[in-house]
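fold-stage: in
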Amino acid sequence: MTIEITVNGKTKTLVAELSLEDLLLDLGMAKGRIAVELNGHIVPRSQFSSQRISNLDSIEIVQAIGGG
């Protein structure tokens, strides 16, 4: 079974429903300061491992970059 989601405006096909944490690991974004919005709602970091991703979900990921 495959599902389609949108991540930061780009369509991505996944082979199965994953947790948000699994997706972030797959994208190489699991570490650092990030904020995630799932279907218009902010997901607390404490829920990344339990939050499931479903077909047609829209996800926005923002990563804080330090600099000066």
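fold-stage: in (second)
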Amino acid sequence: MPKVKIPPVLRAQTGGQSVVEAAGDDVGAVLNALTEAHPDLARQLFDDAGDLNRYVNVYLNDEDVRLLDGLGTAAKEGDTVVILPAMAGG
């Protein structure tokens, strides 16, 4: 199963876990499995239409999935998905 790295700001929704395994053949399925196991993450990751929130960056093995096949980017055993919420402020 791919591993998902959870940033500190979202760890409360995963019971403090920094890395969670989630099954799926592509990044979208991995994130859906993650939100099924940790429902409070869904509103952080996805908008009302079910698309990736524009303020959330997702990487598969250090590659931005938006520059690949988006949520349809293939994922396999040993891959690492990193969730990186955009930070605002000044």
